[in-house]
Amino acid sequence: MSEPPRKPDDRLASTRLANEHQREWFLDFRRRVMKNDDPYVIAGAVSPHEIFHTMKIPVVTTQWYSAIIAAKQLSPYYFNMMDRLGWHDGLARYSSLPFMTTLDNDAERAPYGGLPKPMMMIDRVRGDFGQRISEQWARAYDVPDFIIDCSSSTRLLDRWHERAQHDWEELYETHRLDFQVEQLQNLIGTAEKLSGRTFDRAEFAEQMRRINEAGEVVAAARDLIARTRPCPVPLTEQLNNVMAATWSRGSQWAVDHLKQYKDEVQARADKGIGACANERYRLLWLNNGLWFNTSFYRAFEQSHGAVFVWSMYTNFFSDGYRKYFSGDPLRALAARHISMNEQLHLPPWMADWIIQQARDFGADGAVMLVPEADRMSAYGTRFAKLALEKAGIPVLELHTGIVDARLWDNEKMTRQVAGFIEEKLKPQGA
Amino acid sequence: LVLLFVNRARIRHNSPMAALDDLRRHYREREQAARAENDSGGKVIGYFSNNVPVELIRAAGFFPVRLTGDPRETTETGDRYMEEFHDGDIRSIFDRTLRGHFNFCDLIVVPRTSESFLQLYYYLLEARHWEPARKFPELYLFDLLQGPGETIARYDRGRLRDLRRTLDRVAGRTMNDAAVRTAIASVNENRALLDQVNQLRRRALLSGTDMLRVYGAASFVATDVHSAWLREILTGANALHAIPGARLMLKGSPHEDDGFYQLIESCGAILVADDHTSGERAFEHRVANSGDAIAALTEHYHHHSLSPRSYPQAEQDRRFIELVEQARVRGVIFFHDEWDDVLGWDFPDQKKLLDARGIPSVFLKKQSYRAPDRAAQRDAVQGLVESIA
C-alpha cells in the first residue's frame, strides 16, 4: 500500500483545507459536546442531515467515520473485536465499523478520540440490517434511535440523472414523497423535543438553496475534469474536496470551498498540469471507495499512464443531491434521499448514469469494486458490468472489502488491474 | 377441481394420518392445485413469503399460491444477471421466473418485506429488457413497511388500497367489502386451526417436520380444503402417539424445504417449536373482523406478519423467549442462510438470553441452499441432543 512518490505541493490547496476542515470540525464539535454537553447526532450517510444542520446540531456520518477508521488502518482491530463478540464475517462492515469503536470505548485508540454520547441515532433503512445496528448502537449509548423507513420505487424511469434535479415529483412517485415528508416532520418534532431548539424554516430554505448552488459548482468542476486532458486532478483529491463539502452541505463554507476547488482545477487545466503527465488510459472507479487504501487509485499512473478520472463521488453531489424547488423545501429534501441507493446500486439506474459519465470523461475502461460482506453495495454490479460492456466499456471486477483491510491482497489486486490495462484496454489516441 | 378436493377431504378422510398424507403430498407437489385452477380457466395470483394479504386475493376471486424456489434445480439462466451472493431461494425463484415456470399465474405479488425480495423485483424488471423473448407474468410490488408508528400505518393502508385496485383491474371487476370480510373469516379460521394443530406438535403428538408441511400446504391449496384437513387431524388426534426425543426449537432463516427438519428429527429430537418466517409465527395472530376491512388487514400485516424487517428487534426477541418457555424447549438450533447479513446481528443477544436460562444452543451459520453439508449439520445437531441428554 505504498504511496507513489509525490511532492507535498502536488496537492491542491483546497485539498489540504478540506482535510484540515474535517479534522478541525470533528475535534471542535467533540470538545463542545464533552465540555458543554452540546447535542450532536450520529446519522447514516443517506439521511437528512439538513434538518440538524439547520438547527446547528453537528452530524457525524457513520460511513464517513468508517472511512476514517479504515484510512487509519484501524479496521482490522475493530473487526477482530466484532468477530469475538459473535458477529460473523458475513455481516455488513461499512456501516457497523463505527459502532465497534463505541463498544471498544477506548478514546486513545479511536480516530480523533472517538464518538461521545450523541443526542440520538438516525438511520434510513433501505436494507434489513441497518435498523438492527442502529437499535443496538443506540442501546449502547442509551439514547433514542430514530429510524426513517424506506419506501420503494414501483418503477424506475429512464435517465434519472437528467430528471432528478427538477422532475423529481414524477421520478420518485407522489405517494412516496408524501410519506417521506411526513417522516421528516416527525424527525423535526423529535429533534426539537430532544434538543430544546427550534427548526427555523427560513434558514432551512436558505440551506437548501445553498446546496443547489454548491451542486452547480460541483457540476462545473466535473465538466472541466471530464473535458480536460490530461486529467487535472487525481481522484483522491476529487474525493477529499467533494465529500468534505457533502458532509457540510448547506453551509456557506461548502459553497466557498467548492468554488476554490473548481478554480484551482481550472488553473491546472489552463496550465496543462495533469495528475499524470503521461496519461494514456482514463479509468472509472465504480462503486464505493477503497477507504483503507486510496493510494491504490494512483498506483498505475507511473507504470501504465493509467489515471482514475471519475468515481461516483466526483459528481453525485451535483446529480443526486441537487433538488430545485418552488414550493415546500421539505418536499425537495424528501426527494434528495428517497432513492439514493437505487441511483447508485440498482439496475438500470446505476449503469445508465455510469455509461453517461464514461462517455463524458472519455473513459477507456472501468474498475469496479464488488464489496464482500457488504452486499447492499454489491447488488446490481453484474447488470452494470453487462451494460457497460455492451456500451463498449471494459470492466474489471475487484472483489474485496470497502473498509476491511484484512481482505486486501495488494499484490494480487495490483496484478489484476495491471493485467486488465495491458490486455483489455486501448490507449488514448490508439 | 377444488370441489373435488373438498369432497375427497370430507369423504375419504377418516383418520388424521390420511389427512396428513394429503397435506404432505400438497407440500411436495406444491403447484398442483394452482396449475389445475389455471387449467380449468380460473385465475391464479402468485406471491412470495407470508407478508402478502391473501385475504384480498381470495376476495377478488383468485386462487392465491405461494411461489417458492427448488434447491434441486440449477440456475444457469438467472446466473447471467444475478450475483452469487443472493439468497439461494431468491436465485432459484429468479431463474424459475425467467424460464417461465410461474406462467400459470396471472400476476405475481412481490412483498417489500425483505431486501432480497425487493432486489428480486428490480432484477426481474430489468431482466425483461435483457431477455425480451422470455415471457413471465406481470409483477406487482407490495410496498409493505413494518416499522412502528402511525405514519407507517397510514402508508401501508395506502399500499393495501393500491393492491386492492390492482387486483380489481386484473379481475375486471370490483371486489366488495363483504367478500373481503368472508375471506378474512376463512383465513382466520384456518390460522386458528393451525394453532390448534400446532398444540399437538407442542405435545409431541405431531413431528416438527409434519407441522412444517401442514403449515406450508396452507399456501398451496384452497383454504377451505386445507381447513377441512386440519379438522380431520384434530378430530382424530386421540389416535396419535407421542414421539420421543429431545425437545428442540429451530430459529433463524426460513425453510421452504423439509430436509433440515427431517435431519434434526432423525437425531433423536423433536422440533416442538420454531421461530422463523415459514414457521408457527406466521399463524399466531388473527385479523380483526370488525370495522374497516382494509384497516384491519393493514394492522395485521403491518404489526403481526413476521419478516426480516419486523422491528424493534428487542420485541422479536421477547417473543422468541416466550416461545422457548411456553414450548418447554430444551435446546435451540440457530440456522442462518449462506448469505445472511441480517439475522446474524441478532444472534449474540439471543444466545445471551438462552445462556441466562441455561438452555444450550448450536449455531449453524452460512448454510447452503443448494448443497447443504448434511454431515456437518448432523454432527452439530447430535452434539446438541447429546448435551441435553
How would you describe what is shown here?
The complex is a heterodimer of chains A (430) and B (389). By secondary structure, chain A is an alpha/beta fold. Chain A has helices spanning 13-36, 49-54, 62-71, 75-84, 97-104, 130-141, 160-163, 168-172, 174-195, 201-227, 235-247, 252-271, 301-304, 312-321, 329-337, 340-345, 349-361, 381-390, 410-424; strands at residues 41-43, 59-61, 120-125, 145-149, 281-286, 306-311, 365-371, 395-400. In chain A, the strands form 2 sheets. A 4-stranded parallel sheet of chain A has the order 2-1-3-4, with helices on both faces. A 4-stranded parallel sheet of chain A has the order 6-5-7-8, sandwiched between helices. In chain A, strand 5, helix 13 and strand 6 form a beta-alpha-beta unit. The longest helix of chain A has 27 residues, at 201-227. The longest helix of chain B has 26 residues, at 177-202. The radius of gyration of chain B is 20 Å and the shape is globular. The A-B interface holds A 85-88, 90-92, 125-129, 131-133, 135-136, 147, 149-152, 154-156, 175, 179, 182-183, 186, 342, 346-348, 370, 373, 375-376, 378-379, 381-383, 386 and B 80-83, 85, 112, 114-115, 118-119, 122-123, 125-126, 129-130, 141, 143, 145, 147, 149, 151-152, 154-155, 158, 162, 308-309, 311-314, 339-342, 344-349, 351, 365-366.
Largest interface (CB < 8 Å): A-B, 44 and 46 residues
Q: Summarize the helix and strand pattern of chain A as letters.
A: HEHEHHHEHEHHHHHHEHEHHHHEHEH
How far the N terminus sits from the C terminus of chain B, by CA atoms, comes to: 49 Å
Helix- and strand-based class of chain A?
alpha/beta
Helix content of chain A: 40-55%
Structural class of chain B: alpha/beta
Q: Judging from the principal axes of the Cα atoms, what is the shape of chain B?
A: globular
Report the mean per-residue pLDDT of chain B as an integer: 95
**In what range is the share of β-strand residues of chain B?**
5-15%
Helix tally of chain A? 19
Helical amount of chain B: 40-55%
Largest sheet strand order of chain B: 2-1-3-4
Shape of chain A: globular
Uncertain segments of chain A: 1-6
